[in-house]
Amino acid sequence: MFSKEEAQSYNISITGRHVLVTDAMKTYAHEKLSKIEQFSKEIIDIHMTMDIQRQEHRVDILVSVGHFVIKTHASTQDMYASIDKSVDKLLARLKRYKSKMQEHHEKKLSTVELEVSVVRSAFSNEDEINDAIEDENYKHLEEDFNHQIVKTEVLPMKMLTANEAVMKMDLSGDTFLVYRSEEEQKIKVIYRRKSGDYGVITPD
């Protein structure tokens, strides 16, 4: 389990959605998460969310490690098993990229600012969409999908090699990433294909 000194060096939060997170569940999660300490000293914060939906016990983990964001999730019929599975996925990714992440941390990164707008659907979450579909039987949904821009953010767009871009995508599980190519000095978009492979778009 994390010592008091380790816990003070970065933030650890465990929250529940549709489930009451007991002290026993928190203790178990902390003990499992302590395994990642050996793979990186660059941990900034760790956030775990536990959720129960239709008998599925889901655990999502988001870890900020230096310049990287690592996301994993797992669903089983038991919350403790989901914790095990999600942490195992996290450990596997850290083991796979440990040396490359260290090289990336030591590299001086070049960044530019990228403006991003956040669009909110008429429905705030997936549950509301599903409930609306069931209640209205598909009849009035098209009238309710009024989207609006609710926030504009400025995010750093980093200079990355192609391999570094793939590594960031693999660790984060995101569907796409905008970056500046170190090899070509051009803005590129790397995205996850349905096959699981990656594609790269270079705007003209």
Notes on the structure:
This protein has 204 residues and is α+β, with helices and mostly antiparallel strands. The chain has six helices and nine strands. Helix 2 links the parallel strand 1 and strand 2. Helix 2 (23-33) packs parallel to helix 3 and helix 3 (79-106) runs antiparallel to helix 6 (162-172).
Tally of DSSP β-strands: 9
- How many individual helices? 6
Model regions low in confidence, pLDDT < 50 over at least 5 residues: 1-8, 136-143
Distance between the termini: 51 Å
Strand-residue proportion: 35-45%
Give the overall shape: globular
Q: How are the strands of the largest sheet arranged?
A: 5-6-7-8-9
Topology:
Elements: H1 4-9, E1 11-17, H2 23-33, E2 43-53, E3 56-65, E4 68-76, H3 79-106, E5 111-120, H4 126-136, H5 141-144, E6 148-160, H6 162-172, E7 176-181, E8 187-192, E9 198-201
Parallel strand pairs: 1-2, 6-7
Antiparallel strand pairs: 2-3, 3-4, 5-6, 7-8, 8-9
Helix pairs in contact: 2-3, 3-6
